[in-house]
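Alpha/beta fold hydrolase
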Amino acid sequence: MDDGSPLTLDRLVEQVLGASGEVTRDPVDVVGFSLGAVIAAAAAARHPERVRRLVLIAGWARNDDPRKRLGFQVWRRLADVDPELYSHYISLLLFKPEFLAGLDEESFAEWVGGATVTEGTVRQIDLGLDVDIRDLLPRVSAPTLVIGCRHDQLVPVGHSRELHEAIAGSSYLEIDSGHLVPAEAPDALVDAIRSFLG
């Protein structure tokens, strides 16, 4: 149950594993996107007996990158001061320029105006500005695929490459996409996950 309190990594890890535990006691395959990738990696590190295979998409391990922090801080501030600018700004960071530029007028208005400010999103941004899992990554033992998004402006692709380098034996793949790869390149993403898990 969500009581509205600030999100913590520990709490979200326990929620993910708790949900899987309701279905099976066997190890499960875990796929995490963006902040979800951070949570998935932490779950695999802290509870290796619960995670069979791991896919990390557009994630990160650290928050001492000043450019990334600036992006998150502006995003967070706009949530408080101007919901329309919040939506426009995050759209610029979520998609590669060619994707947005290639949309027709109606689709462009829908994509760019689709990001609304919610309490949940604000709490996720706050956690995203705080969380650091570098010390956990050497403990990830599950077979892992790290997927980077080549044109990611929210979480630059170098962060995915760092995850790959920090997780022993992991595989790495880059997709020609901005951060929101599930929307921008869904077929490539699904094919990569199926190939790894299958």
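thats it. The CA atoms of residues 145 and 171 lie 5 Å apart. The two ends are 34 Å apart (CA to CA). bye
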